[in-house]
Amino acid sequence: MNTFLAGSSHVDITPKLGHNLAGWIDVRPATRQATPIMARAVALATDQTCLLMINCDIVGFGMDLHQRMLDAVSQRCNVVQEQIFILPTHNHYGPSVSGNYAGDAKLTTQETEYTEALIESLAVAGRAALDNLRPARLSIGFGEETTYSQNDRFWRKDGTINWVGDRETHLDRDSGPKDPQVGVLRLVDAQNKSIATLFNFACHANCAEPDGFTAISWDFPGYTAQTIEQTLGGEALFLPGTCGNIHPMREGVAKEMGETIGNVVIEVAKTSEYIEPGMLEIIHQEMVLPARDFSSFDPQQIEMICSQIADKETSSKVQSIFMSVLNNLKSNPIPDHVRKIHVIVLGDLAIVFVPGELFSEFGLEIKKRSPFKYTLVVELLSESVGYVPTIKAYKEGGYQPAVGTRLAPGGGEILMEKALALLAEINR
Q1: Are 5 and 136 in contact (CB under 8 A)?
Q2: Is 53 exposed, middle or buried (0-12, 13-18, 19+ CB in 10 A)?
Q3: Are strands 374-379 and 194-201 parallel, antiparallel or unpaired?
Q4: For the chain, does the N or the C end have fewer beta carbons within 10 angstroms?
Q5: Cα dihedral 95→210→156→304 (10° resolution)
Q6: Are the C-beta atoms of residues 58 and 22 closer than 8 Å to each other?
Q7: Are strands 235-240 and 38-45 parallel, antiparallel or unpaired?
Q8: Which of 112 and 403 is assigned the larger pLDDT?
Q9: CA 318 to CA 321: how far, in whole Å?
Q10: pLDDT, tens only, 368-393
Q11: Do 130 and 79 contact (CB within 8 A), yes or no?
């Protein structure tokens, strides 16, 4: 009989005040701490395979840093790197680990020291989760949360696609869908005690605290996790859904939004269906995605999106930064992107990990067409290619298909079809 084991752990990775916060294009030193910043780990094991999944309240990290994380976790945990998944929650109010977007991406001394400590902390969290392995059962369920997320790419009354600006003032009509589904995986031990709860929801983690532009916060995913842990116990890990065009409907309600989603997860967990995990399979497939040619990019697109920023000083500064980015891209053409799709299979469940901020249309389509009974789509597994817009979005314009993406038009559709083909192949 195949034994199924699970274990979990967490570690505090809160930076010091003054650390530059990620998720904004300019320097933003933290002036206060609203919440801790956490890393959480879940280990799964069967007779044949072990899987280690670690997430942290960080916006993202580059491929070099990701590789250093993998090296450290693999060595400490004695797990091969192909079986380690390190995920950011895409939190825009956590510590920067990749330097300043507006400058030359060089880390400050404080950021360098923090990054070294972070690598060690993730290895510690992974080891602790493995040390806590015990017989487990897996259940899955789905709910919905419709009141806090929105497709931020709506058509404005002035005939442009929105980047910044509230709907009440500017909305003419919607441009695309959102995905309200909340996917819930729960792991419990033989005494029905919670080991971990994994929740999948498509929305950017940039809700913020009230008056929280420079506040350290774990944003809504952290509050969701806290709500779940206080009621169900164990650890709660956020698996970010495809939210390249999905953002919170309001700012300053991170706690309110997180607690609402947490309560949805708790209700789903009460009636979630136990499934037979069977063999734990981990599949990786390399792909090549076409790079964008910026040689003929019209800079008026940058002028248009920056004109939507009400504060003129900020608008001018952002436009200057984007123009600098564009000029660099024109002077230094980027090669095609070699990336991987990753799939975890547990019986009737497939979890698909994709390398970028996919538009919600792609996640919805993958789930709709997947041959598996249950499918979750998780974005931003370490090797991000930036925003992954639809062909339609490139034609409409707006922030994401401007300097926010490094993919050629059609790259998202290629990625989606490759993911679906891989799922079909695995299912066979």
Answers
A1: yes
A2: buried
A3: unpaired
A4: N
A5: -40
A6: yes
A7: unpaired
A8: 112
A9: 5
A10: 999 999 999 999 876 788 899 999 99
A11: yes
